[in-house]
Amino acid sequence: MDDVDAVQAQIAANMLHSGDWVIPRLDGVPYIEKSPLVYWLMAGFFRIFGVHDWAARIPIAFAAVLLAWVAYRYGRWAFNARAGYYAGIVLATCVGLFLFTRILIPDVILTLTTCLAFWSFQRATDPDEAQPRFWAAILAASLGAGVMLKGLIALVVPFGGVFVYLVLTKQLFSLQLWKRLHVVTSAAIFLLIAAPWHIIATLRMPPYLNFTMHSGPGEYHGFFWFYFMNEHVLRFLNLRYPRDYNTVPRFAFWALHLVWLFPWSVYFPAVIKQNFKPTDRASRTRLLALCWAGVLLTFFTFSTTQEYYSMPIYPALALLLGSAMANESSWTLWGTRVLGFIDALCAVTIAILIYRVRNAPAPGDISHALQQHPGTYTLALGHMGDLTIPSFAYLRTPLWLALAAFLLGTLACWLLRGSRVYLAMALSMVLFIHASRLAMVVFDPYLSSRPLANALLRAPKGELIIDGPYYAFSSVFFYTDKNALLWNGRKNNLEYGSYSPGSPPVFIDDSQFQSLWSSDRRYFVLSDETKLDHVREAAPANRLFLVAESGGKALYSNLPLN
After folding, report:
1. Is 265 in contact with 296 (CB distance < 8 Å)?
2. pLDDT of 17-59, one tens digit each?
3. Dihedral angle computed from the Cα positions of residues 75, 78, 83 and 85, in that order, rounded to the nearest 10 degrees
4. Using an 8 Å Cβ cutoff, are 311 and 157 in contact?
5. What's the predicted TM-score (pTM) here?
6. Residue 361, SS3?
7. How far is residue 392 from each of residues 29, 330, 346, measured CA to CA in Å?
């Protein structure tokens, strides 16, 4: 897809082609917002299988499967086999993990390292554990990998959660506990993993150690300032420049976990009835999971947030839910009945949609029936607001599958009990997830520019111009493996890197575009329907030849194709 999806994959491909594994680049411009481990992982699979979109998704897919397995093993160790099984099922089939692994972001891998860190901490400090040194090393390696995935935020939740837990259990000053963590050895392992790239990148992009709190256009202070100060400190304070991000309202950030953990979130009331007094391994795990989740939610309550920022607490919530589901009670029974009502309501809603669009035409692709809301696109699920009633005419097959899923869920909740109802719910979610996947295929021309990239590859050779910033057509860069000029695109994610010494002159303004477009050399320009008037004003009508259009976007050339 356009936006961050293809951006991540293209950075990995650029690293593989250039041999520069330190400084991520887009269109030749340094892109130093994120740590590079996810790029390295994708580039490794590119080297094995070639540069393909499916190869870029292998690390995310592996991490999601491994996360469910680790949650199962964690729950089995902490509670019992049944609770561990339920915890794994919760993670594998919940809405949030599916939604936020459709995008190439490292958060599911960070969630895996976070889960490993908390489990390793418990194993290392458990008095009955025979290999505390081994688990302390896993803890340090998990923290180091987390920092290499997402920066210092990877330390906030483990350190904060453990700190609160140790205070509550009165173990903060327990010498025996700190001995079992092998602090010196663990610190060495952590630094060995996390420090080298940060040091090398700082040396590669001076000046060094700038701590200014001011962030504005045209300023360049090197890698250290942008990565540590701008991306960590100023972003937390909502003072980062450029402000190319949005934030979820605080109440929604908390309440949406009922959606992200659906359908299993109906059992949260049963979690409240569990024992949290740290008297045995199970209750200690529940308390730690509560601290784990509470620290992250509290931290982001005072910071800017995206919908997926809370993914690292999904395992904590899954452990709590799995424990409650294994200890069947009247609370879980009521949760199942509530879910049956919700599924029935969803089934009725989908049936009404199917009826409403039964005779509606579906010409071309789905972009013809969508209504754009660009102001919401800085949120991960911003495009959901583009849906209209007529657009569901393009989604008939996914709607029928979703209807079957919710009908199965409704029947299961009212007819089955115990482990059988949980299995049936998981199966209904598999069906619903498949329906969602088919819907995303229908959205592909709208969310991706691959058809235009294919048209560009078939067209005569020429230089590409993007109308706007890089992200708008990032999939074209990936599928063509070409660089481009960015017309009025010196903004958002590439703005800071564009001021670094040696950054290529890929940014052009209106006058430069008109000069290039009027030349005898072939150029192509990519634009979307919201900017086509701007293109027509800048390019003479006799020098504007349509090459292809798809998903509300168009590709033009300044010369005839023949």
Report:
1. no
2. 999 999 999 999 999 999 999 999 999 999 999 999 999 999 9
3. 30
4. no
5. 0.94
6. coil
7. 40, 39, 15
DSSP designation for 232: I
Three-state DSSP class for residue 250:
helix
Element (H, E) at 188: helix 183-204
State how far the alpha carbon of 48 is from the alpha carbons of 20, 66, 257, 431, in Å. 18, 21, 37, 32
**How do residues 113-172 score in pLDDT, each as one tens digit?**
999 999 999 999 999 999 999 999 999 999 999 999 999 999 999 999 999 999 999 999
Contact (CB, 8 A) for 367 and 445: yes
What Å distances lie between residue 168 and 129, 175, 291, 331, CA to CA? 22, 16, 9, 27
3-state SS string for 339-352: HHHHHHHHHHHHHH
Q: How far, in Å, are 43, 153, 352, 392 from residue 146 at the CA level?
A: 18, 8, 45, 40
DSSP label of 437: H
List C-alpha distances in Å: 553 to 112, 275, 381, 478, 485: 37, 56, 20, 17, 17
Separation between Cα atoms, residue 42 and residue 104, nearest integer Å = 10
> What distance in Å separates the CA atoms of residue 375 and residue 172, rounded to the nearest whole number?
46
Per DSSP, 424 falls in state H
CA distance 19 to 95: 38
Decide if 144 contacts 194 (C-beta within 8 A).
yes
At 496, give phi and psi (nearest 5°): -65, -50
**Annotated domain spans of the chain:** 57-325, 330-447, 450-557
